[in-house]
TrEMBL record:
Cross-referenced SMART domains: DEXDc (SM00487), HELICc (SM00490)
UniProt name for this protein: ATP-dependent RNA helicase CshA
Gene3D superfamilies membership: 3.30.70.330, P-loop containing nucleotide triphosphate hydrolases (3.40.50.300)
The organism's place on the tree of life at top rank: Bacteria
Alphabetized Pfam families for the sequence: DbpA, DEAD, Helicase_C
Residue ranges of the TM segments: none
Domain annotation DEAD-box RNA helicase Q: ranges: 4-32
Keywords assigned: ATP-binding, Cytoplasm, Helicase, Hydrolase, Nucleotide-binding
EC number: 3.6.4.13
């Protein structure tokens, strides 16, 4: 673990091991600057843009410092259920070597299930303010043992009208708690909240917005079912036949498994990650630089030392966990003013992360269909014809003419050419496609944010009628409705989401002006 820079920040060894397992050895700026502050016991205000690794910035020191006493020791407030689930999942990964119980609580999920989990005993609770307040009022969420309080995406919680709920929750926590506030921006109400509820000597860590440019790289994504991830990659490799490509996986284990899968199918590929010896990594990298190896599979950390001008393609076999890693990955191609190609395999669950990447980088990532078996075959045939024509133009065919004449005595020329093409095609085709097309993943509903809630006298029926009256859509296309105190979430069929976004903002429900946005476009 000596090569892991997280080990220099004061984190305990089991935490460093967990983050090494995820393929990370170098902290981001917000992690490097805020982790020592949190470990020192000081309150912290962290200001950094989305996608800079804020979840790990507060989770790692909390897991390191947390006591072993009974009760909830860390409370993390997030603006949306999507972010709450994401934070919960990441803490689970970061605390894999700890005996911790982590629970996410939010509206739209069974409150009875959440209450049962709380009664069994929980160490860390992540959730939305509305559901937390509901659990507090039911006397099911006891916060008297809280050591750490985190406000994640504080500016988003302000925008969504959570400020009163947050203050109410804060009043139920011990005064001696350590408070960590993270926000992309610092509007006056957030600054006032920090001043009122954080210690006077709270430390500010501010990371300047970096320029995330990906201008010369053609970026595309392919919507897939997770079970088709390997075949989708193989279809793309077979269609484009890249001269030099890096394929990125999230974890070292993922690299090993993909190398084994591709090698078993005949692809010439090798892997690189931190568990491999330095000598092995250097040998692999030299092969890649010299061009004797065209496909390299790597983790983010292993690829940071790769500076090869000729990389034509980058494949995101797994999307990364933050925006900066995505930019670093695809920056391996398109070097020295050349154009590059970046492909990402995306499941419906990954789509929110993809949107975040697009929003932060301000780049266009175009959706393309996964190639069909017919398209791959036709492309290979076309390439073979081009190769033969180039060989004829180049000459130097004299030594092959006697054999060609012998074949021509017994077979017609068309059959000879077709036979040679078949041999070449069979030698180059390594994946046995059982179907022409891969099944497309089912589209998920679009989740919309409405700026009205229970406090405005809203009921599901009132909201459905408002949507129907303004858009004339069928009620059957309106799915789950989650009513909160100050706002609501509505899941709708993708086919009508644009119509609702166009027609519903600006109206009034019980004298309250209505604003509507796509919930997934909020920062995660």
């Amino acid at each position: 673990m000596s090569d892991n820079q997280f080990s220099t920040l004061g984190l305990k060894e089991s935490v460093v091991k967990a983050i090494s397992d995820l393929g990370f050895t170098k902290p981001s700026q917000i992690q490097e600057q805020s982790i020592p502050v949190t470990l020192s016991g000081a309150d912290l205000i962290g200001q950094a843009q989305t996608g800079t690794g804020k979840t790990a910035a507060y989770s790692l020191p909390i897991i390191t410092k947390m006591s072993d006493k009974k009760g909830i020791k860390a409370l993390i407030l997030a603006p949306t259920r999507e972010l709450a689930v994401q934070v919960n999942d990441e803490i689970q990964r970061l605390s894999k070597y700890e005996n911790l119980e982590v629970l996410s609580v939010y509206g739209g999920d069974s409150i009875d299930r959440q209450i049962k989990a709380l009664r069994r005993g929980v160490d860390i609770v992540v959730g939305t303010p509305g559901r937390m307040l509901d659990l507090i009022k039911r006397k099911c969420l006891h916060l008297d043992s809280v050591e750490f309080l985190v406000l994640d995406e504080a500016d988003e919680m302000l925008n969504m009208g959570f400020i009163d709920d947050i203050e109410s929750i804060l009043s139920h926590t011990p005064a001696e708690r350590q408070t960590l506030l993270f926000s992309a921006t610092m509007p006056d109400p957030i600054a006032k909240l920090a001043k009122r509820y954080m210690k006077p000597d709270a430390k500010l860590v501010s990371i300047k917005r970096s320029s995330l440019t990906v201008s010369k790289i053609e970026q595309s994504y392919f919507m897939i079912n997770n079970k088709h991830r390997l075949e989708a990659l193989c279809r793309l490799l077979d269609l484009d036949n890249p001269n030099s490509a890096i394929i990125f996986c999230k974890t070292k284990r993922g690299v090993d498994e993909l190398v084994q899968e591709l090698q078993s199918k005949g692809y010439m590929v090798e892997g690189m990650h931190g568990d491999m010896t330095q000598a092995h990594r250097l040998t692999t990298l030299n092969k890649f630089k010299e061009g004797t190896l065209s496909l390299l599979i790597a983790t983010d950390v292993a690829a940071r030392g790769i500076d090869v001008d000729g990389v034509t393609h980058v494949f995101n076999y797994d999307l990364p966990q933050d925006v900066e890693s995505y930019v670093h990955r695809i920056g391996r191609t398109g070097r020295a003013n050349r154009e590059g190609t970046a492909y990402s395999l995306v499941t419906p669950k990954d789509f929110a992360m993809l949107k975040q990447i697009q929003n932060v980088t301000k780049s266009s990532i175009t959706q393309k269909p996964v190639p069909t078996a017919e398209e791959i075959k036709n492309k290979k045939f076309k390439d073979m014809v081009s190769e033969v024509e180039e060989a004829i133009k180049a000459g130097e065919l004299t030594k092959f003419i006697p054999s060609a004449m012998e074949l021509a005595e017994n077979h017609d020329p068309i059959s000879i050419i077709a036979g040679l093409m078949k041999i070449k095609f069979d030698n180059e085709s390594v994946f046995d496609y059982s179907a022409n097309k891969l099944d497309a993943p089912k589209k998920e509903d679009v989740r919309l944010f409405f700026s009205v809630g229970k406090r405005d006298g809203l009921t599901p029926k009132v909201l459905i009628n408002y949507i129907k009256d303004r858009t004339r859509v069928n009620a059957s296309t309106i799915g789950q409705i989650d009513l909160m105190e100050n706002f609501s979430f509505v899941s709708v069929d993708e086919s009508i989401s644009k119509k609702i976004l166009d027609k519903c903002p600006g109206g009034k429900i019980n004298k309250k002006k209505v604003n509507v946005e796509v919930a997934n476009k909020r920062k995660r």
